[in-house]
Design a protein that fits this description.
By secondary structure, the protein is mainly α. The chain has one domain. The chain is about 75% helix and about 0% strand. Helix 3 runs antiparallel to helix 4, helix 3 runs antiparallel to helix 6 and helix 4 runs antiparallel to helix 5. The longest helix has 29 residues.
C-alpha cells in the first residue's frame, strides 16, 4: 500500500465521518442534503463513501492527469455504494441483530479500503487501454445525480427508509 493510498483512505474516512453530521450542522439545508445523509437510512450512508471518494478521485486526476484515476474513481464509487448496504444487511441479517456502532464503523472503514483498492488498481491502467475519460466523467456525474435524486424522491424500499 502506497503512502498516497493511506492518505486517501484517511481523507475519505475522515470526510465521510464529518459528512455524517453536516446536514444537521447546516441547519438542514436542502442543498447540503443532496450530498450528505439527511436521515439514518442505509442508502443515505452510502454518501459517506461515494462523495468523499469522488472528490479524492477528481483531485487525484487533476494532480496526475491519469485517465485511469477517473475510471478507478467511478468503479470505486459504485463498489462502495453497493458494498456498504450489502455489508450492513449481511451482518444484521446473518446475526439477527440491529446495527452495532462499532461494527458499522469498522465496516465503513472496510468498505472505504475496498473502494480505494478498486480505484487505485484502475488508476494504474494505461490510458490507451481505457475508454474516453469523458465517459468516466459522465458516469461520475450520473452517480452523484442518482444519489441526489434518491434523497429527493427515495423509493419506498427498506434500503431508503430511516429506522
Amino acid at each position: 500500500m502506497t503512502r498516497a493510498t493511506v492518505i486517501e483512505g484517511v481523507v475519505v474516512v475522515a470526510a465521510g465521518s464529518l459528512l455524517h453530521f453536516t446536514y444537521e450542522w447546516s441547519g438542514e439545508n436542502a442543498l447540503v442534503g443532496l450530498v450528505t445523509p439527511v436521515n439514518e437510512s442505509v442508502w443515505e450512508h452510502t454518501k459517506l463513501v461515494v462523495v468523499p471518494l469522488v472528490v479524492v478521485g477528481v483531485v487525484g486526476f487533476v494532480r496526475t492527469r491519469r485517465v485511469g484515476e477517473l475510471w478507478g474513481t467511478l468503479a470505486g464509487a459504485v463498489v462502495g455504494a453497493l458494498l456498504l448496504p450489502l455489508v450492513f444487511y449481511g451482518y444484521t441479517g446473518a446475526f439477527g441483530v440491529g446495527n452495532i456502532l462499532w461494527v458499522d464503523l469498522l465496516s465503513f472503514v472496510g468498505v472505504v479500503v475496498t473502494a480505494l483498492a478498486v480505484k487505485n488498481r484502475l488508476a494504474r491502467v494505461d490510458a490507451d487501454r481505457l475508454p474516453s475519460p469523458w465517459l468516466a466523467v459522465a458516469g461520475l456525474v450520473l452517480i452523484l445525480v442518482l444519489v441526489a435524486l434518491a434523497t429527493l424522491a427515495p423509493p419506498d424500499l427498506p434500503l431508503f427508509t430511516a429506522p
